[in-house]
Design goal:
Distance between the termini: 72 Å
Low-confidence stretches: 1-14, 92-97, 176-185, 393-403
Strand content: 15-25%
Number of strands: 25
Largest sheet: 6 strands, antiparallel
Number of helices: 14
Shape: globular
Structural class: alpha+beta
Mean pLDDT: 77
Length: 511
């Protein structure tokens, strides 16, 4: 039987088309002149049904390009053989700067279904060592379903061909061929579930930020010019929400971020059958009804408002399957807040959110310093999982005086000093006009530049800091007077980057 299927299948192609096959037309390639590579725009575009030779015969002109796709599907065999050719050109290696890659994109108003969707998932770019690179614009459609047989084949061999087709798809999506096109060599298992869990006469469309994150699909860059994405905000870097100006509202927002992130991180535990996004949405709503324990919070002034750090705990975010007290986790969220009257505009601040064992939690500063360097997770919690794209801000931001930046609930708080800088950015403060950027830590380090009062610098390795040996004990402890003395004595130094220069600044002049 296996011999028969293998030899029979070698002579025919399984055609997997979108549902509206009557509108399908032969495939055509178009060149797109003036594409902006930095903004991940397409050099070439394919429209129509994928037929034999459409991809293989054009492979040399497609390598290193980004292709836009607008197709109801077509020949899965053509897609398979095309990807195998790419694999051969890569020498079955793991990619690299010289990797043979083809990035993909679907433009607003276009659709990519069935075999086209499989091709789309192989989008990658050698810019980041064969980093997966597939872009779905708002208003575009990406649809998956299991294959069906071309009616022209008749019923005689349909069962054998369907079986062979299923094996072919599973092989394609789980083989090393795909793995050479992904950053960590791991195929999202949810993709196989989506393909084989969707009947041939139905279509599963990917249209939520959460599901795009699960499948490794990106949205366009928000800086993209000349395109009207009404109501669009980038899924990963521009999640935003407006809440009332109160600690309770901020904590609720942080709880949503932690809950969504927790569910997505351990999503294999929370789907009742195979993979269903609706299961994750339903489970998330149940978790949101449980109030978290507030472990600690802090607010620091920034140029636009405040950097809000919140640590939540209890049994809201446990490690699934663990039956010991070690399963309980704390969750730390960093938010950027712009305070406007009785409202706050909140956005996630990189690195978004992180978890750690509740048994290891001592204080907020230590949690940020220890965990943010290596254990951050993407958070899709400021907007609903079922929302296609987060809504844009329509609130006009007025210039805020620095003295009025923080609301009463933040200003009255007794802030704890820490030797390190937990944020990825800091502001020059407590100087008359400027401070010196030094090549080495310490007042004896050579001056390589000057940074003016109020300027913003990037902190290298957020949470890390350099200190003299005499302050090692103080910086590891909680004695606020000892920490303040070390900082005031210029014994704590932070490595920063400013206008392309990398050096060290005294912690005394950073906020």
């Amino acid at each position: 039987m296996a011999y028969f299927v293998r030899n029979f299948y070698a002579g025919i192609s399984i055609v997997i088309l979108g549902l509206a096959t009557s509108e399908a037309h032969a495939g055509t390639w178009y060149d797109i002149p003036g594409a902006n590579v930095e903004l991940r725009q397409c050099n070439k575009k394919f429209e129509g049904v994928i037929e034999a030779g459409d991809l293989k015969n054009n492979i040399e002109s497609l390598i290193g390009k980004r292709i836009c796709l607008n197709s109801p599907g077509g020949s899965l065999s053509e897609v398979t053989e095309f990807i195998e050719l790419i694999q051969e050109k890569n020498g079955f290696g793991t990619g690299g700067d010289d990797a043979v890659t083809i990035a993909t994109r679907i433009q607003a108003g276009d659709k990519c279904e069935s075999a086209c969707a499989v091709l789309f998932m192989f989008g990658s770019n050698s810019y980041r060592t064969a980093y997966q690179d597939k872009v779905l614009e708002p208003g575009a459609k990406l649809g998956f379903h299991s294959p069906f047989i071309d009616p022209r084949l008749g019923d005689k061999y349909s069962g054998d061909v369907a079986f062979a087709g299923g094996i072919q798809i599973a092989n394609l999506l789980s083989s090393a061929t795909y793995k050479t096109s992904t950053p960590m060599g791991v195929l999202p298992e949810e993709l196989l579930s989506i393909v084989f869990g969707t009947p041939p006469d139905q279509m599963h469309y990917v249209d939520t930020c959460a599901e795009m994150h699960i499948l490794g699909i990106s949205t366009p860059d928000v800086e993209e010019v000349g395109r009207d994405y009404t109501g669009f905000r980038d899924c990963e870097t521009n999640e935003a929400v407006t809440v009332s100006n109160s600690l309770e509202a901020v904590v609720e927002t942080a709880h949503r971020v932690c809950t969504f992130s927790h569910v997505l991180r351990y999503r294999k535990w929370f789907s009742e059958q195979s993979y269903k996004l609706n299961d994750l949405v339903s489970f998330t709503k149940k978790l949101l009804t449980k109030k978290p324990e507030i472990l600690d919070h802090s607010v620091y002034k920034t140029l636009k408002g405040g950097r809000i750090n919140i640590a939540l705990g209890g049994w809201n975010y446990p490690v699934p399957g663990w039956m010991t007290n070690a399963a309980a986790q704390f969750c730390v969220v960093q938010l950027d807040g712009t305070f406007i009257g009785n409202k706050i505009d909140l956005t996630l601040h990189s690195p978004y959110v992180t978890f750690g064992s509740l048994n290891d939690y001592t204080d907020l500063g230590s949690a940020i310093g220890q965990y943010f360097n290596f254990n951050s997770a993407q958070a899709f919690g400021l907007s609903s999982l079922s929302l296609k794209f987060p809504p844009p801000f329509k609130l006009k931001i007025k210039k805020i005086q620095q003295s009025d930046a923080l609301p009463p609930w933040a200003r009255k708080q007794k802030l704890s000093l820490a030797c390190g800088i937990s944020a990825s950015e800091a502001i020059i403060t407590k100087v008359t006009s400027f401070t010196n950027l030094r090549q080495k830590a310490g007042l004896n380090g050579r001056v390589i530049g000057q940074i003016s009062l109020g300027e913003k610098v990037s902190v290298v390795n957020p949470g890390d800091f350099l200190r003299y040996d005499r302050c090692a004990a103080a910086c590891k402890g909680t004695n606020q007077n000892a920490i303040k003395q070390c900082i005031d004595n210029n014994d704590v130094w932070i490595e920063v980057q400013y206008n392309g220069s990398r050096g060290f600044l005294s912690r005394k002049f950073l906020e």
